[in-house]
Amino acid sequence: MDMPDRIRELMAARGLTEAELSRRSGVPQPTVHRILKGESRSPRRDSINALSKALGTTAEVLWGEIPMSMATTIPRHREGLDQVGQVLEWDDQTPMEDDEVAIPFRQEIELAAGPGAAQALESPTPPTLRFGKRSLRRYGVSAEQACCVRVRGNSMEPVLPDGSTVAVNQADHVVVDGKMYALMHDGMLRVKTLYRMPGGGLRLRSFNRDEHPDEEYSAAELTEKNITILGRVFWIASFV
């Protein structure tokens, strides 16, 4: 999927026309049209930044640096439901629709995106977040093997600001270079992008590399430091 396809998919998910996207982003409509047609091979970064904000996602998603599954999901308009902007209002008492499934939001668990251990919070009745069944099937995620957790720290900014929520596919432990994973590191829960290294080692990378440089571990060091992959992150969301 190239950039025009990503933009069109997000436009469809948010019910935006080309003219509305131009109006919301401040990017001239002829420029939006050229980008959607693939005629602008090297669009200006400030234009992509503006489009990403209007689409409720990040520029990294549009550039293809982060998979579409991690785009912040904003549901389409549904007649008869209250809305704030384009975000649907619901609570635990709102009946689920046939195409929805509830995934537990494990508030007693937090992933550290920075130094120090994440704090554990007790949650006697864990809340849930709702996902479309079709979306989960598209990305090969079983609801029974998924959970949502909160991220603390600044090592994954700007993609994951402190307090972001991520959904983890606990059945997916296969490392794909550049994808994001939840890890257990000597008793601490962490979230990093991973890269394979020769001999079975791993490179742990943060988005905020100025403050958090890469960490490299050989296969032996992974065992020695008790580093295990808990699952792959397939969805992210945050307030900005």
Descriptive keywords:
about 240 residues; alpha+beta; 434 Repressor (Amino-terminal Domain); Umud Fragment, subunit A; 2 domains; two-stranded antiparallel ribbon; about 30% strand
What's the helix and strand layout?
Elements: H1 3-14, H2 18-25, H3 29-37, H4 45-54, H5 59-63, E1 83-84, E2 87-88, E3 100-112, E4 128-132, H6 133-138, E5 146-152, E6 165-169, E7 180-185, E8 188-197, E9 201-205, E10 215-217, H7 219-224, E11 227-237
Helix pairs in contact: 2-4
Structural account:
The protein is α+β, with helices and mostly antiparallel strands and 240 residues long. It has two domains: 3-65, Orthogonal Bundle (434 Repressor (Amino-terminal Domain)), CATH 1.10.260.40; 101-237, Umud Fragment, subunit A (Ribbon), CATH 2.10.109.10. It contains seven helices and eleven strands. It has helices at 3-14, 18-25, 29-37, 45-54, 59-63, 133-138, 219-224, and strands at residues 83-84, 87-88, 100-112, 128-132, 146-152, 165-169, 180-185, 188-197, 201-205, 215-217, 227-237. Strand 8 (188-197) and strand 9 (201-205) form a beta hairpin. The longest helix has 12 residues, at 3-14. The protein starts with a helix and ends with a strand.
Averaged pLDDT, please? Answer: 80
> Which outline best applies?
globular
- Total domains, how many? 2
CATH superfamily of the largest domain: Umud Fragment, subunit A
- How helix-rich are the residues, as a percent range? 10-25%
Strand content: 25-35%
How far is it from the N-terminal to the C-terminal residue, by CA? 27 Å
List unreliable stretches of 5+ residues.
Answer: 73-90, 116-123
Q: What is the CATH first-level class name of the largest domain?
A: Mainly Beta
Order of helices and strands: HHHHHEEEEHEEEEEEHE
CATH hierarchy: architecture of the largest domain? Ribbon
Q: Main sheet: which strands, in order across?
A: 4-3-5-6-11-7-8-9-10
Q: Compute the gyration radius: what is it?
A: 19 Å
CATH T-level fold name of the largest domain: Umud Fragment, subunit A
Number of helical elements? 7
Global structural class: alpha+beta
Say how many strands there are.
11
Biggest β-sheet strands, sense, barrel: 9 strands, mixed
